[in-house]
TrEMBL record:
Record protein name field: Uncharacterized protein
TM ranges: 12-33, 53-77, 84-103, 109-127, 139-161, 167-186, 346-371, 383-405, 412-428, 440-460, 472-496, 502-527
Keyword line: Membrane, Transmembrane, Transmembrane helix
Gene3D superfamilies according to UniProt: MFS general substrate transporter like domains (1.20.1250.20)
Bias-annotated ranges (Acidic residues): 221-231
Organism name: Strongylocentrotus purpuratus (Purple sea urchin)
Regions of compositional bias (Polar residues) in chain numbering: 200-210
Organism ancestry: Eukaryota, Metazoa, Echinodermata, Eleutherozoa, Echinozoa
Length: 536
C-alpha cells in the first residue's frame, strides 16, 4: 500500500493473514447449528410441549444474540485483549451448547442458547475486524473465501445431528455440537495483530514498526481518491513528531537561558510557559484548532504560570477532569457516531433493509427446510440430505462468487439477477412433492442464497464513505442481521401455526427476497451516481 505523500505501508507478517482467514472459516461453521436445529425441531416441540413459533424463536436465539451483541462486544474489545475475548467466547459457546442438551425447561433452554450466541460473537468479532486489517483492499474476496465455513457447516452439521440423534439421543446431539464449537478456542488462540512498516520512498528511509491504530486512521476529503486509509495516519504521526520536536527545542532553550537559576519551581513553571507558546505558535502556523480537552490543559498550564510553585497540582486537576468526563464519554461518543452515520453514511443506511430481508429469508429457509420436506411425506433420513444438497450447491455458489470477484465483476448485477431467481424458486414451491423435485429446489435455493450471502460485506465496503467507520458499520450490520434472524424464527413459526402449511410459508418467503432485489437495484443506481459525481 502507498500513501499520496510518497510513503509505502507494508505488513511484515502478512502471511499470518491467511491463518486469520482459516480462523474465520472455523467460526463460520457455527451457521450450520441453526440447520441442525431444523432436524431437532419436531423433537423439541414434543419434548417441551410448545408450538412451532415458540420453539422456532428459541432455536434462532444463538444466531440472533450473536449479532445483537456486536456493539457491546466491540466496546469490550477496546479494553480487553482480542485473543482473550475470542478464546473465552469459544469456551462459552461450547459449554452452554452442551448444557442445553440437559435442560428440560424452555426458559432455561432459551437462556443457555442466548449465552451461546454471546460466546459466538466474542469469538467472531475479533477475527472479522482483524481480517479487515490484513486484507484492507481485498476484504470482500477474502471474506467470501472464509464464508466457505458456513457452507460446510450447513452441509455437514445437520447430517451429524440426525445420525447422533439416532445413536446417542437428544442430549448426545448437543454434546457433539458443543464439542465442535470448542474448536473456536483454537481459532481465538491464533489471533495475532498485523505489524506495519512505513517506508519513505522520497528518502529511502524505513520507519519503525507501528501499531495499526496509529497507521490506519484516515479522514477522507472529496478530492481524496485514496482508499487504503493510510494517509491520515501518516499525517497525524508526522504532526505529532513535529510538535514533539518543537516542544523539545523550547525546553532546551529554557534550560540554557535559565541555567543559573536553582529554583526548581520557577524552572518548571517557565518550561510550561514555553510549551504553551510553542504549541500555540505551531497550531497557528498549521491551522489546527484546539479542542475542549486541549483548552482545558492549556488553562491549567496558564494557571501554573500565574501561581509558581503549584505545578505539582496539575496531575490531580487533570485527573479529576478525566474522571468527570468518563461518566458520560461512552454515551456521548455513541450518539455522535449515530449522528455521523445519519449525515455522512446515508447510502450505507439505505443498504440495511436489504441486509434484514436477506437474513430473514435465509434463516427461514435454513430453519424450516427439513420440516417442510417431512410434511410432504419424505422420510426424516432422506429429508436431512436436502440440507447437504443445499450445502453442496452453496460451495458451488461461493466458488462462482470468488471467480467473479477475482475478475472484478460488478457484484450488484449478480445480486440482482440471483435475487430474482431466488424469489421465483420460492413462488413456485408448490410444484412437485417428490424427493427429486425437492432436491432440485434445495440445490437452486442453496446456490442462490450462498451467492447473496456475500452482499452484506459488499454493501459495507462499497457504500461507506469513511473507512474509519468500518467497525461501527460492521456492528450495525450484525445488529440488523440479528433482527432478521429472530424475525424469521418467530414470524415464520407463528405463520405456520396459523396456516399449517409449509408450502404456503415457503411461497411467502419469496416476498422478502423480491424486496431485497428491489433494494439492491436502488443502492446500485445511487452508488453509480455518487461515483460519477466525483469525476464531474
Amino acid at each position: 500500500m502507498e500513501s499520496s505523500r510518497g510513503q509505502e505501508i507494508s505488513i511484515l507478517n502478512w502471511k499470518w493473514g491467511y491463518v486469520i482467514v482459516l480462523c474465520k472459516f472455523m467460526t463460520n461453521m457455527a451457521v450450520g447449528i441453526t440447520k441442525a436445529f431444523g432436524v431437532l425441531l419436531p423433537v423439541m416441540v414434543e419434548r417441551f410441549n410448545r408450538n412451532y413459533a415458540t420453539v422456532g424463536f428459541i432455536c434462532s436465539l444463538p444466531g440472533t444474540i450473536m449479532l445483537f451483541s456486536g456493539p457491546f462486544v466491540s466496546l469490550v474489545l477496546q479494553r480487553v485483549d482480542h485473543r482473550i475475548v475470542a478464546m473465552l467466547g469459544g469456551v462459552i459457546s461450547g459449554g452452554c451448547l452442551v448444557a442445553s442438551g440437559f435442560i428440560s425447561n424452555i426458559t432455561g433452554l432459551g437462556f443457555t442458547l442466548a449465552l451461546t450466541g454471546i460466546g459466538r460473537c466474542c469469538a467472531y468479532l475479533p477475527i472479522a475486524l482483524l481480517m479487515n486489517q490484513y486484507f484492507k483492499e481485498n476484504f470482500v474476496l477474502m471474506n467470501t473465501i472464509a464464508s466457505y465455513g458456513s457452507t460446510v457447516g450447513v452441509m455437514f452439521l445437520p447430517v451429524i445431528a440426525e445420525r447422533s440423534l439416532e445413536a446417542y439421543g437428544y442430549s448426545g446431539v448437543f454434546m457433539i455440537l458443543g464439542a465442535i464449537m470448542f474448536h473456536k478456542v483454537a481459532g481465538g488462540a491464533a489471533i495475532r495483530k498485523p505489524i506495519f512498516s512505513v517506508k519513505d520512498n522520497t528518502t529511502g528511509q524505513s520507519g519503525s514498526e507501528q501499531d495499526p491504530s496509529e497507521v490506519i486512521r484516515h479522514e477522507p476529503s472529496e478530492d481524496d481518491d485514496e482508499e487504503d486509509g493510510i494517509e491520515g495516519g501518516d499525517q497525524m504521526t508526522k504532526l505529532k513528531d513535529e510538535l514533539r520536536d518543537d516542544t523539545d527545542q523550547g525546553q532546551a532553550l529554557a534550560e540554557s537561558r535559565f541555567h543559573t537559576k536553582e529554583n526548581l519551581e520557577n524552572t518548571e513553571t517557565l518550561n510550561a510557559a514555553i510549551v504553551i507558546n510553542d504549541t500555540k505558535r505551531y497550531e497557528e502556523d498549521k491551522g489546527i484548532l484546539i479542542d475542549d480537552n486541549n483548552e482545558e490543559h492549556v488553562s491549567l498550564l496558564n494557571s501554573a504560570c500565574d501561581h509558581p510553585g503549584e505545578v505539582g497540582d496539575l496531575p490531580d486537576a487533570s485527573r479529576s477532569g478525566q474522571d468527570d468526563s468518563e461518566k458520560y464519554n461512552l454515551c456521548s461518543s455513541f450518539i455522535s457516531r449515530c449522528k455521523l452515520f445519519m449525515t455522512k453514511e446515508a447510502l450505507f443506511l439505505m443498504s440495511l433493509p436489504a441486509t434484514y430481508l436477506r437474513a430473514y429469508s435465509f434463516e427461514a429457509w435454513v430453519l424450516y427446510l427439513v420440516p417442510h420436506s417431512e410434511q410432504l411425506g419424505i422420510t426424516p433420513s432422506r429429508a436431512v440430505f436436502l440440507s447437504s444438497i443445499g450445502g453442496i450447491s452453496g460451495i458451488i455458489g461461493r466458488t462462482i462468487t470468488v471467480i467473479l470477484l477475482v475478475k472484478k465483476v460488478h457484484m450488484f448485477k449478480i445480486y440482482i439477477t440471483v435475487g430474482f431467481i431466488t424469489s421465483l424458486s420460492f413462488f413456485f414451491d408448490f410444484v412437485g412433492e417428490s424427493f427429486i423435485i425437492r432436491s432440485v429446489w434445495a440445490f437452486l435455493q442453496g446456490l442462490c442464497f450462498f451467492v447473496l450471502d456475500t452482499a452484506d460485506a459488499t454493501f459495507l465496503k462499497l457504500t461507506l464513505v469513511d473507512e474509519s467507520n468500518f467497525s461501527f458499520g460492521l456492528g450495525l450490520v450484525m445488529l440488523i442481521h440479528g433482527c432478521g434472524n429472530i424475525s424469521a424464527g418467530l414470524l415464520t413459526g407463528a405463520l405456520f401455526d396459523v396456516i399449517q402449511s409449509y408450502t404456503i410459508v415457503f411461497m411467502m418467503i419469496g416476498i422478502p427476497v423480491l424486496f431485497f432485489t428491489i433494494n439492491t437495484v436502488v443502492i446500485s443506481v445511487l452508488l453509480n451516481r455518487r461515483v460519477k459525481s466525483k469525476y464531474v
